[in-house]
Amino acid sequence: MAACVLALLIWLSREHNAANHMLAATLLIGAAWTSLSVVERLMPTAAQALVLDNIQFLTMDMVPVTVIVFSLAYAGRLPERRRGLLLLLLWPLLSQALVWTDPLHGLVRVEPVFLAGGGVSMLSYEFGIAALLIIMVDLVLLLAALSILGSHMVTINRRLRMRVLPLAIPILFLFIAAMLSMTGVFMPHQRDPSAYILLALAGGVALHLYTTQDTAIVPRSRALILDALTDGLIVVNRSGLILDINRSAVRTFGVDEKAVLGQPVTVLHPSLAGVLGGSRVSMLQMSDTAIFNVRTVPLPGTEGSAIHLHDVTLLEQAERALRESEERYRTLVEQAPTAIAIHDGERFIYANPAMARLLGSESPAALLGKPVRDLRAPGTDLSLLLQGAATPTEQQVSLRTLTGRTIRAEVTAVPLAYQGQPAVQIVAHDVTERVRAAEALRTSEKRQRRLLALISDHAYSVRLLPDGTHELDWQTAEPFKRLTGYDYSYLVDNPSVQWIHPDDHPRVTEDYERALRGEQTETEYRLVTRSGELRWVHVIRRPVWDEEEGRDVRLDGVLQDITERKRAEEDLRRSEERFRTVSDIMSEYAYSVIVKEDGSIELDWYTEESYKRLTGYDLRKVITGEMQPVHVGDRDRSHEDFRRALRGEPHEGEYRMFDREGTERWLLLKRQPIWDEQEGRVVRVNGVALDITERKRAEEQLQRLNEELEERVTKRTAELEAAYREMRRLSELKDEFVANVSHELRTPITNIKLYLHLLQANPDKAAQYLQVLERETHRLHTDVEDLLLITRIDQNRLLFQMQCFDLNRLVQDHITDRIALASQRKRHLSVGLGTTVGDVEADPALVEKVLSILLSNALDYTREGDRIIVQTFSAEGGVGLRVSDTGPGIPESDRERIFRRFVRGSLPQQQAISGTGIGLSIAKTIAEGHGGRITCSQTPGGGATFELWLPQSAGRDNPNA
Description:
Mean pLDDT: 71
Radius of gyration: 61 Å
Helix content: 40-55%
Low-confidence stretches: 56-65, 67-128, 147-152, 157-167, 180-216, 444-456, 956-961
């Protein structure tokens, strides 16, 4: 039974190898042999004796041999992998050898007793020297077996957690040995002396087992500790071969522990080759997500090294998340409309683009290193900007930008630590436009209203998940609470709280969903604060695209409080109403023009009574271009000044204009653009006009007196010479003009007198003479009208009565009256009307005047049989008419000169064709006054071609404003 218990304990120790299995089998065989001996004593029949003798023969001789072989193998004298095979081969061979060849031949008497059936009885020994030797051999074998069992008892004791087990086993052996010795089981014919020796050795064996069990635990415990480490540990020799590896390293590299022992360390990872050279591998990237720090440590007293692997994956992920958070914050600051900068007490060390724009810098980088004191405007205290305040305090100061311009700004400065050094952060808002608008009113409202207040900015970021859902990543809690009075978490936990105005809620929800779909949105809506106050906010949402994931991964938003701006707009609207009321009783006028997104303008309001009293016109018609009372010489400048106002530049200019009576007046026109920060453009232009006619007259008179005095004192001689040359030129022009006019007027007058005389002498030819008289009278009337028109042009009193009319119809009506005249003068006159020519916005009387001049010249300068063609066309966004003839043409050198006043071409002078030389100059003035042009070219095949081009519409920018 004791042998069975020992075999069971060996298997419970879980040291499953060939040697342990053989030892357990030997113990079971010994137990069986002992049991059979007892049975033999109790039941001595012939048949049982035959079987038992054979079994005892085999077991008695096989047990000692098996124990010897097992002891050698377990002591490590044989390779572990060959122990089982060697035991299986040697066990039967050695057993048979001991039976058939007695190693103590001559000392031991062997009496084999052959029984029926070929069995052999057990051996009998005689006492003496041989018996003592056998007892000694038995003791050696027993001691070896007990030593082997002792090593197993340590493992069994540790698993069963029993420290008394090593003492119990020897005591059990001694008890069994004593009982067997007294009963003679070992020796059937005599007592076995070895039992007494076993009794003497039992105490020593028990003491040995008890004192050595803790020593055997140490190597095993060390291995368990290494396997329990979470960090990987690899032991290599100087050649880089793996001597040991713990379980954590096995899991890290995903290898088999037994397979890599004795292999080069590079089989685990190529980067570990650096260990062989004694270098240190600082970082090992196992995969996209697994990162290890690697450190090599030489082992004292050996030539090997220990490689330590520490998992830093979570640390790397945390650092990456921190970097992403910092990048999001920096991106938000860079995109914020609020100007933000940081300085070290003397110079700027950081600035966002908004601050660079505010201070007139080309870029944020150009602002770095600039002294903060350079921003000081006269009379400005910069102590808040330089030192900051622990409690954020807003202060309005005047700052001088880098371009030298002075602006007003509301600033908040707070001390902080920047890159480990003390610094001051500045947040600034440009309020220059608000201050200027308040000062321009020049009323008590300047002291009562503040158009700008602290802008409560709020920022947040929403993480967009791959499954289409989203969650809040972060948000600025304090500004949000300051703006709304709520904690954001409170609103999340209480979705029933109506903090967005009900009328704006659907629009806000729609814009937010659009932003989640990837659209950048801007929204203005009203918030209901915890105290019940309504506040306007402007929200910008921008999705962030991730190229690797191919989708929007984040939605960033910035919220800006625009309540004060909304209130200022409402106050401005009310002020404008009061301003219009006051302006109605002034002798000057005021107006306001709305500027649309496409750049077009629309009259909002104007002081109608004062404007009509001053000019006699309707400003609406002036805005639309129907009337142009501004002096021709001042129109281009007026246009440019108005465009400057549309670009956001306040401006004032002095212009001449004519009232409905034709009286020239001087006006001082001040234009003030209204800039909308949210839309980033001018949305309105306000204007005020002052009548400065008397002042200008006085200035002109004073200027003339000053100029005359200066000319007399400093440049008398030069001016006299210039005056002399000018007088000669004017005299020549005058003489030529007087001669031409005299001739042109004398000729029809002479003809009239002649035909009146003929009419009196020949009444029967009255019809013929009256026709001639009518023609000459018309010619005389035309010349006089041209002279009067030239006079109005010189006096800048030429007004354009703009209206829409059909150009084709005007040409057709005019040509109809001239066909008969052309036929009388034997010219072929034809007309070609363009089918795409529509209505034109112009002065029909002046356009017909140009046509009359061109057609009259064509009739005068062509020969009999020549053709004259009048055509209309559309081109370049406008319309025009073309008069071509097959006459002698105009030399190229004269094609520019003939449009000058009093200048005639060389050909008419050679052919002695009459004319004053003012027709084409009048035509050019009319064309340019409409914004068009008139040109002269050569007709293909010979002759001259004149083209008049006019814009289809008078345009949206009118200088008369």
